[in-house]
Design brief:
Radius of gyration: 22 Å
Number of domains: 1
Shape: globular
Number of strands: 14
Mean pLDDT: 82
CATH topology: Thrombin, subunit H
Low-confidence stretches: 11-16, 231-240, 275-280
Structural class: alpha+beta
Strand order of the largest sheet: 8-7-11-12-13-10-9
Largest sheet: 7 strands, antiparallel
Helix content: 10-25%
Distance between the termini: 63 Å
Strand content: 35-45%
Number of helices: 4
CATH class: Mainly Beta
Length: 289
């Protein structure tokens, strides 16, 4: 028995050392990707007004501030993020039946983008794509100096079970540091359009760029949700509401971004640097189902 153990032990050591080396390689690649793109990952702070109307109970109005991750995709400061992050009413609609007399409206009062160096700039919603859960933000005034951005023209690709790195901003408690995590592509949808499926619920990863280990952008993380059935009690249960985190390919994000109107240059060529919004928006072209 001891002789057999002596024969097996070196094999186990070799396997473990190989696995450890692989982990070190992935970690090193991840650090390089984060260093390259961290400046293009921003915190988007939104002041939102919400009105909740329900028959027989009147209406209730509230205001709140929330933060989400956005990705800069042009040197002029165009930011892409998940539409669900800035318009929660889209999710509320999936939980209530129309005949229940429940209506929830949300309005964005202001948008501020917080850059990596701590500077802040007012932004506005320039375009929404309801089908792909994408929102595009632009600065209210042209920014003077080019910003770091994720280049969607040099897009990467992925296959099922490939590993992707997602970059996002942590909250105030973690000083809004840029963080990363690795996720594998669980499935790929090709119809009616290509989507990379990562899992059931994206959480704080909404709006994060999904990158290959060599730093190429595969796409942007969004939320996909459909309502499949009603509980019969006026709302939809978690089991009835199918949700999934998905990556919209970079090529498609870039194509939609071309529809965003350019920011008018300031007079005398004086742009503004990020410092310490309403909604001027365009609907994206209809998507084929």
């Amino acid at each position: 028995m001891s002789k057999r153990c002596c024969q097996v032990a070196p094999v186990v050591v070799l396997l473990c050392s190989g696995w450890a080396a692989r982990c070190d390689e992935v970690a090193a690649a991840g650090r390089a990707v984060l260093a390259k793109h961290a400046g293009a990952i921003v915190t988007v702070r939104l002041a939102i007004r919400e009105v909740f109307n329900m028959e027989d109970y009147g209406s209730e109005e509230s205001e709140f501030v929330q933060e989400a991750t956005g990705t800069i995709i042009s040197p002029e400061g165009l930011v892409v993020m998940s539409l669900s992050s800035i318009d929660p009413s889209r999710l509320y609609a999936d939980f209530f039946e129309e005949e229940d007399g429940v209506e929830i409206q949300t309005r964005i009062e202001s948008i501020t983008v917080l850059f990596e160096d701590g500077k802040e700039t007012p932004f506005e919603v320039a375009l929404r794509d309801m089908d792909l859960d994408l929102a595009f933000l632009r600065p209210t005034v042209a920014i003077a100096n080019p910003l770091p951005y994720v280049d969607l023209t040099a897009a990467g690709t992925a296959e099922q079970f490939d590993e992707l790195m997602l970059l996002h901003r942590l909250g105030k408690v973690a000083k809004r540091q840029c963080a990363g995590s690795f996720q594998r592509v669980k499935a790929i949808l090709d119809k009616p359009r290509r989507l990379y499926i990562l899992g059931e619920w994206p959480g704080i990863m909404l709006g994060a760029p999904a990158l290959t280990l060599d730093g190429k952008c595969v796409g942007v993380v969004v939320l996909r949700s459909i309502k499949t059935a009603s509980t019969g009690f006026g709302w939809t249960s978690d089991e009835d509401l199918n949700t999934a985190s998905a990556v919209v390919p970079a090529e498609e994000v870039l194509e939609i971004a071309k529809q965003v109107p350019a920011v008018e240059p300031p007079a005398s060529g004086e742009g503004v640097a990020p410092e310490t919004a309403g909604e001027s928006q365009t609907e994206a072209r209809p998507q084929e189902e």
